[in-house]
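User: Hey, my collaborator sent me this sequence without any context and asked if I could get a structure. I don't really work with proteins. Can you help?
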Amino acid sequence: MSTLGNSANIFWHECPVGKLDRQKLLNQRGCVVWITGLSGSGKSTLACSLGRELHSRGKLSYILDGDNLRHGLNKDLGFKAEDRAENIRRVGEVAKLFADSGLICIASLISPYRKDRDACRAILEDGSFIEVFMNIPLEVCEQRDAKGLYKLARAGKIKGFTGIDDPYESPLNCEIELKLEDGICPGPSTMAGQVATYLDDKGFLRHE
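Assistant: No problem. I've predicted the 3D structure and written it out in structure-token form, which is a compact way to encode the shape of the chain:
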């Protein structure tokens, strides 16, 4: 294993154009909107709807989708606990860079373990990690099963599947919780509007 990260010969290089300059240029504040929840809970759908909503308001965002990232950045990782932790660590570091660039980074991942999500929160400035919990019951997610993964997991063809034979640890203090209302899931645009309103209220949609 590389020991590069422990080297005493690596130095941080500061550049004259900083985060505040970029935020002023974009007229927004960089942050990370971290969407977590079970497979089939609607994370990617919300991420895309939120990206569209922000775009309509003239705000620049970028989506880091868990499945998409496993086609490139994280294609060398599996789904064992240590691989899941490294997957989230990498995404957290990339999300931090996007936030530092002044963008609103929308990260959409199951991210089942609380300690891994908390580690991502810890590397960001106070208040700039917005955890959005898609609190959709397992039975609803399993009924949707758009990718057919729950069926495979129930049949024993996928091992370590979150919600079936691997745990999902719900957030304890998330900024936003989205759940069924009278047994019905709100539409993507409605949920995206809730998140966008939170960002606006917290001052992320302007640079001051």
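In plain terms: The chain has a mean pLDDT of 93. You can pass these tokens on to your collaborator as they are.
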